[in-house]
Amino acid sequence: MRLLVIEDEQDLANLLALSLRKAGFAVDIATDGEKGSFLARTNEYDLVITDYILPSLDGYNVIKEIRADGRNMPILMLSVRQSASDKINVLDIGADDYLAKPFAGDELLARVRALLRRPPHIKTDIINFHDLSLDISTFKVSRGGRNIILTNKEFALLQHLLNNAGKIVSRESLLEHVWDGDTDAFSNTVETHILRLRRKIDNKGKKLIHNIVGRGYKLDLI
Ligand code: CA
Predict the structure, then answer these.
(1) Ligand 1 centroid to 188 CA: how many Å?
(2) Where does 126-219 sit in CATH, by number?
(3) Cβ atoms within 10 A of the Cβ of 185, count?
(4) Domain segments of the chain: what residues?
(5) Ligand 1: distance of its center to the CA of 134 in Å?
(6) Residues with CB under 5 A from ligand 1 (ion)
(7) Which residues partner with 147 through β-bridges?
(8) Residues 170-194: pLDDT tens digits?
(9) CA of residue 92 to ligand 1 center, whole Å
(10) For 127, left (φ over 0), alpha (ψ -120 to 50), or beta?
(11) What is the CATH code of the structural domain delimited by 2-116?
(12) Which of 73, 124, 38, 64 is closest to 6 using CA atoms?
């Protein structure tokens, strides 16, 4: 697991990195918001920890940029600001959790572990990737602003692929996450649904759902 820490207080950044590395994580550090946002959008991080008050770009806008780029990794916000409205704002723009400074190292690690166990975007209703958008609360899907009508199964399939955008998702993983235990694993139900989903999603615009022969499927801009 690779983590990014965006924190301008060098001592705190080093301390965080040290304790996270001790816990087995690979850690990169950015000491200002612009650099942090850039790193988060150009590398594959499993989780981002960002301070709120940062030079060049504050934590609020860092998160906005990361989410606007379609990146779904969990984000933990650190801040000395701790009023209820601050917390709500931060969670509303796509942070997954919020930790007020000062905090205990153990609590930070516990929250990081909890966030990594969670499927991405559990607190955000809209998942974006490229020009594709899926809204969990309203069950709406659109591509390039054009609404697409999906069946419940196609919707769940697309949601799982979006949650794992850029990664190969095996047929088994799709069966496990999208179908219930009664499904016959030897039937061609996954293939059939992928085919239908692809016809709806990829019939206009750049191909997003790819078949990775022998390994599964991938939602990506290749
Ligand atoms: Ca700061």
Answers:
(1) 53
(2) 1.10.10.10
(3) 12
(4) 2-116, 126-219
(5) 33
(6) 8, 51, 53
(7) 142
(8) 998 888 777 766 667 677 888 999 9
(9) 21
(10) beta
(11) 3.40.50.2300
(12) 38
Angstrom distance (rounded) from CA 37 to CA 4: 10
Distance 31 CA to ligand 1 centre (A): 9
Q: How far is the CA of 8 from the centre of ligand 1 (A)?
A: 5
pLDDT tens, position by position, 66-80: 998 988 899 999 987
Ligand 1 centre from 80 Cα, in Å? 9
Cα–Cα dist 63/88, whole Å: 14
Whether residue 36 contacts residue 14, with contact meaning beta carbons closer than 8 Å, is answered with: no
pLDDT for the residue 124? 61
CA of 196 to the centre of ligand 1 (A): 48
Do 20 and 27 form a contact (C-beta atoms < 8 A)? yes
Distance 52 CA to ligand 1 centre (A): 6
| pTM more than 0.70 | no
